[in-house]
Amino acid sequence: MRDLGNFGFAWRSIASVAACAVVLAGCGSEVTTAPALHLDASQHVAAHQYDKEWFNAAREGRWDILDALLKAGYPIESVNSSGYTALILAAYDNHPDTLDKLMAAGANACAADHNGNTALMGVIYKGQLDIARTLLQARCDVNATNNAGETALAFAALFGRFGLFDDLIAHGADPDHADARGNTALATVQAQGNLAAMEALRKVGATH
């Protein structure tokens, strides 16, 4: 499977946004349907003994496998080589029921990958706004930034998810947050000539 990649770094021009989308597409499931996993009730698994099964199950929304591994002691916050947790993968691959069960089991909805990108940022990119609203209920820091200093609101502005603006603001999003380069979301979309995004941001309080 290809990496989800740096989906927070490339959005300074239309060309860079297109490149970002190509990289992000790699998070899609490129796995075959996993068979059921049968473990004895008393069996305890080593920390990384079933990594492949765990992450494939998360991508496929296979709660039966995840649950079996959790009951056998598999660590719920395990990460793969890109820093993705099961929760990040289940959210990104649009498995709301599995996401809910992972959250109920104690999975950290605020966790970020190696690039600082959270599950919320990933589903905003995908346009999965219902899942985004579920993640907002976890009360994570809505102004958390990735390694480029970009927030969930900046993702929503860039990818045209204006329907989520009110939800983000209601949870405390700063409409004038500046990224690591000193650019606000409004300044970024203005540089792109994105009039719709500019208007939507100003409606929720962005000033510069």
From TrEMBL:
Keyword Repeat among UniProt keywords: yes
Domain of life: Bacteria
Keywords noted in UniProt: ANK repeat, Repeat
InterPro entries: Ankyrin_rpt, Ankyrin_rpt-contain_sf, Dendritic_Spine_Reg/Scaffold
Any Pfam family: Ank_2
ANK repeats: 82-114, 115-147, 148-180
Extent of the signal sequence: none
Name of the protein in question: Ankyrin repeat domain-containing protein
